[in-house]
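ok here's Lipoprotein, seq below lol
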Amino acid sequence: MDYFKSITLVFCLLVLYSCDKDDTALYSKETSDDSLVSNLILTPQSPNQLINNYTGNANFDSNTGILTFTSSGKINFPNRSQGQETRWFVPPSVSKIIIKKQTRVEGQFDVATGTNVIIQGENKFSSKVFGTNLQAYSGTGGLIPVSAGEFSAFLSSGNGTNLIIDNLTSINPKGWHSRANYATGARLTLKNSRFIDDRGGFGNHSDGVHNADLVENCYFETGDDIICDYSDAPTIVRNCEINLVQNAMPIQYGYNGPTSGNNTLTIENLLITGDVGRNGASLIQCLNRNNNSQTATKTINIDGLYFRPSNNNSKGFIVNCDDNITLQGTWKNVNINVADYFNSSLDSKSGQAISFISICNTTNKYKNYNCGNPPMP
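and the structure came out like this:
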């Protein structure tokens, strides 16, 4: 063995990760406003390492770049801090991950390859990615007081990474269900999938999706914010359903003032039902509890919305926003009841944020809007 190969082998053993030709790209720590905090050396683990640290069965085809989970199990990398042992940093050699039907994978997928990666289930209902049955696992007040974003079931980060989630169920994540670090150039698409939190409680931080380009044909039944945009990401939500379980909030722009500049959310056929939700089932929330002086304009265009919580049709706040965020847009083909335009129990401001939204061809404020052909339950 020559000198260079000897040194390389020693280095690989010291840092405990594979030096496979295609899997040596380092995962950089996030530095944007929606940063993650981690003490891990963010290096990818090769397919062989994943297979050797998975309690079920999996295989990898190096010719196609497809890794397939063929039976249920748990990702378990030893010698990591609590919660991180189930986190797989996917290497660039993997282009597609398949979860077979009747298969539940316990773990998180962190993708920063700078390439296109698809995580696809064979069956939307029985191909599952699972987190934990513990309530309030991460985030503020959690068992592990680390950003819930770091414990996302699916995380897209790094310039050029385009992560697509398709035809599966994500259930009870340790943190958020899905997230793209848009500021670093990462992208995210959700299709034909279900995102569920059935643990109950108010502190699971199981947000549905942060900063996606496209959310299509998806079902959300999760106990926190559903469609979140803390970046400049323009997002399209198409043919989706939200079931308002405990603490659910359909659209969230943040708690501590605007976290980014102006952006556009386009909704095409969104059905919102359920019987709980948060604060009387607010549709949009954008608070400024830290008195952030930054301002922003958010455009929300809707073509097709049905929003009536089933337990009390008088509930159904349209908006709960502070005045440094301006909402604008056009809503048509909607059927919604309105309790109020602003939650004065949280803030005494005027709620002028709603003034620039046209609903059913008017900016006047009414208790009910019903026009066109909204999606119906």
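fwiw Residues 1-41, 343-351 have pLDDT under 50 and may be disordered. kinda neat tbh
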